[in-house]
């Protein structure tokens, strides 16, 4: 139970004395989408990660991307469902100006209640 004073007037289902019952479907409660991606093609050495970060920032997405030893770029993106869908299209079709995208796979597509990152970053491989 949550007091009305701490909640405001949204999401009230039923009144029980001085406390109010709140459903899990609160109005205004935000759910986010999270995806993992892997991009194949000419995506290293063509500023693909920089453009991925710039696009994610414009779409207000959080997560990360990095180069892999197999010449792909992998990453995680999280944010609104609409903006994740826009990012997926960008990763599949657009990329950086000098890139060539052969294919892009998406895994771990899920709904999340809280974002797991605070910004979108470019991860660097550690040199051995």
How does this model look, in words?
The chain is α+β, with helices and mostly antiparallel strands and about 130 residues long.
Summary, kept brief:
The chain is an alpha+beta fold.
Please describe the biggest sheet, giving its number of strands, its sense, and whether it closes into a barrel.
5 strands, mixed
What is the CA-atom radius of gyration, in angstroms?
20 Å
What multimeric state do the chains show?
single chain
Order of strands across the biggest sheet?
7-4-6-5-8
* Unreliable stretches: 1-27
Inertia-based shape: globular
List the helices and strands and how they pair.
Blueprint: E1 2-3, H1 4-7, E2 12-16, E3 19-22, E4 32-42, H2 48-58, E5 62-67, E6 73-79, H3 81-93, E7 100-112, E8 120-122
Parallel strand pairs: 5-8
Antiparallel strand pairs: 1-3, 2-3, 4-6, 4-7, 5-6
């Amino acid at each position: 139970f949550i007091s009305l004073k701490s909640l405001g007037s949204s999401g009230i289902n039923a009144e029980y004395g001085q406390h109010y019952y709140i459903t899990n479907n609160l109005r205004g409660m935000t759910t986010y989408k999270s995806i993992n991606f892997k991009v194949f093609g000419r995506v290293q050495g063509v500023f693909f990660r920089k453009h991925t970060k710039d696009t994610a920032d414009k779409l207000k997405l959080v997560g990360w991307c990095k180069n892999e030893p197999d010449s792909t770029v992998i990453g995680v993106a999280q944010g609104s469902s609409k903006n994740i869908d826009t990012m997926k299209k960008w990763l599949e079709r657009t990329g950086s100006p000098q890139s060539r995208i052969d294919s892009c796979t998406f895994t771990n597509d899920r709904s999340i209640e809280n974002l797991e990152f605070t910004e979108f970053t470019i991860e660097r491989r550690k040199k051995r």
